[in-house]
Amino acid sequence: MNPLLTASGLHVTFPGRRGGPSARAVDGVHLDIGAGEIVALVGESGCGKTTLARALLGLVRPTSGSVGFAGAPLSYASRDLKTYRRRVQLVLQDPSGSLNPRHTVYDAVAEGLRIHRYAGDERAAVAAALSRAGLRPPERFFLRYPHELSGGQRQRVVIAGALVLEPELLVADEPVASLDASVRGEILALLLRLRDELGLAALIVTHDLGLAWNIADRVAVMYLGRIVETGTVEEVLSAPRHPYTRALLSVLPESGAEPVVLAGEPPDPSRIPAGCRFHARCQVLASGEADRAGVSSACRTRDLPLLDGHGRAAACHVHGTP
User: Fold this and answer.
1) Whole-number average pLDDT of the chain
2) Sheet with 64-69, side-by-side order of all strands
3) Whole-number Å distance between alpha carbons of 213 and 48
4) How do residues 237-263 score in pLDDT, each as one tens digit?
5) CB 218 within 8 A of CB 231
6) How many CB atoms are closer than 10 A to CB 180?
7) DSSP notation for 121-158
8) CA proximity to 132, closest of 109, 103, 113
9) Residue 319 and residue 12: Cα distance in Å, rounded?
10) Helix (H, G, I), strand (E, B) or coil at 322
């Protein structure tokens, strides 16, 4: 089955300061998302998740590599991008920042229809989107302003604004990070229901592996511009192979593992180290396990190939795929 969205060999670099080396925010990524599939893109702040998501949306043009949708390469002509963004919608982290405080809920949801010159019944489309997002009866919310809503209701309005164009894929950047714990489950359940009822695919960008466990079909773990582990959510979170994934997973209360405290900060993306890009912080290398496996030199000097985005794989000299 052909994927709905594909990234192939994707690189995004930004100019360095004062003529210094370029920052490799996305440094070679292969990623597929199938129709009706939820993929979680997981990693700590600064690893390149948001830049990758923006490149997939056409908001950032790749330095090299390609993005494809429904079997066709993404065109960056203005008219083609406008059509593409009707089929692929963004849901941002902070609903308060996403909504204009001077616009009513009706205007916020109808904005996409007006941009795309929707020819049907605007009121009916807005009502249907609000209803799908769990705001019922929708007419009750038409004339409300964002400050009159709870955080969960504001996030539902943002989701309704994406749904009103009937997209095939949502890209949700930390969709529940700003919400109370009691509301997070409601929004995650909503996203799952939308997948089941509408066949909607989703890329969930998050630093939270617990969120990925609750919602995703597949997980892609990102570190310093690259995906370092991928597989189904059960494979990756039940038996993580990459030391970085193990560290992220260890801090979840339900993991039962001893928390792994990573040394230092992620390296500067303009000065990516040789060898495995995680080796300076790697608990497997520090513990001597890599030396006992005879690969400690390779960890420090030999780069690992890009993961192809299919099946179960980890970019690790010790525990990776042979």
Assistant:
1) 93
2) 23-33, 5-14, 64-69, 72-73
3) 21
4) 999 999 999 999 998 877 667 788 887
5) yes
6) 10
7) -HHHHHHHHHHHTT-SSGGGGTT--GGGS-HHHHHHHH
8) 109
9) 28
10) coil
Q: Which residues of 194-213 are buried (b: 16+ CB within 10 A; e: fewer)?
A: bbeeeebbbbbbbbbbbbbb
| Domain locations in the chain as residue ranges | 98-166
Question: Which residues, listed in sequence order, are joined to residue 12 by a DSSP beta bridge?
Answer: 26
What is the C-alpha radius of gyration for the chain, rounded to an integer number of angstroms? 21
What pLDDT, in 10s, does the model give residues 114-152? 999 999 999 999 999 999 999 999 999 999 999 999 999
pLDDT digit string, tens, across residues 73-119? 999 999 999 999 999 999 987 787 889 999 999 999 999 999 999 99
Distance between CA atoms of 126 and 143, rounded to whole angstroms?
12
Sign of CA dihedral 198, 202, 206, 210: positive
- The letter for the amino acid at 131 is S
The answer to whether residues 245 and 221 touch, using CB atoms and an 8 Å cutoff, is yes
CB 193 within 8 A of CB 23: no
Q: What is the DSSP code string of 172-223? A: EESTTTTS-HHHHHHHHHHHHHHHHHH--EEEEEES-HHHHHHH-SEEEEEE
